[in-house]
Amino acid sequence: MLARERGWRLARLAGLGVTVAVLLSGCSFDESVRGFGWFKGITPEGRRMYELWIAACIAALVVGVFVWGLIFWCVVRYRKRGDELPPQTRFNMPLEFLYTVIPVLVVCVLFYYTAIVQTYVDRRVPNPDVVVDVVAFKWNWKFKHTSVDGDEVSGPAGSEVTTIGASDYIPVLVVPTGKRIEFREYSEDVIHSFWVPEMLFKRDVFPGGIKEDGEEEGIVNRFQVTIDREGAFVGRCAELCGAYHSMMNFELRAVSESDFARYIDLRKQGRSTPEALEAIGQEGYATTTRPFQREPEQNDPQAVTR
């Protein structure tokens, strides 16, 4: 009888192992799998968060394996062997002290390194190389290049150098690599969220604004990054902000310093964003996402006309 029960137990374990192997065989071992769902990112700040995430996952796995091992050891060691009731233990002070102290130590270590990384991610230098205003509105984005290398950026007749999204146009935010970039964010209506997944970072955009004299109204969020890889990276609104929240896409286009300087000069001359991008050898329109096609609705200013 005991031999039969052991046989069934082994068969169930073998079946579970085969099932897990089959499920895992369908997973591609790409960068996100190696990073426990994360990739390394395109900024030093992103890589620091990536390293913290990896360390936290490894710590969680170590604790999990230890706890699972104890559970299975207890299952095997103290399985029922007859009708006799095993000795009952009311408490074990050394063991209770151990499983109270160890979790506290783990939490303290994770808190310490989290505070270090958070301080590094939130740090700002006094004079960033590039300042970009990120203005969110229902349901799109406006990007304004405010200053480059300390000089104000303006187009013909003192006009602003902006890129504004529309229902049939995905706005492209052009930034340089190797430069310290400050993003100043505020919303014209409700709360939105500025998110570029490859940065491994997002920040909410609250109602506010910046007057011509520089005075701030409401809440203006700021953060700084240095992008060290060229490319086109999709951007999203990560805060449910209304009916067409899913349409709030944009693209971050990171180019070399020389191409960015040329791009800014072309924008100052009055060229549009697509025209300036094509002039520096880039795709004029977004390549990572496209406008959300939907049927036009009556009295809908965001409707796409077909």
Automatic annotation (TrEMBL):
Any one of the GO CC terms: plasma membrane
GO biological process, one term: ATP synthesis coupled electron transport
Gene it is expressed from: coxB
Cell compartments where the protein resides: Cell membrane; Membrane
Coiled coil: none
PROSITE patterns: COX2_CUA, PROKAR_LIPOPROTEIN
Species lineage: Bacteria, Bacillati, Actinomycetota, Actinomycetes, Micromonosporales
Function: Subunits I and II form the functional core of the enzyme complex. Electrons originating in cytochrome c are transferred via heme a and Cu(A) to the binuclear center formed by heme a3 and Cu(B).
Keyword Electron transport: yes
Membrane topology category: Multi-pass membrane protein
Transmembrane segments: 53-76, 97-115
Protein name: Cytochrome c oxidase subunit 2
Required co-factors: Cu cation
Lineage top rank: taxon: Bacteria
Stretches assigned to the Cytochrome oxidase subunit II copper A binding domain: 127-266
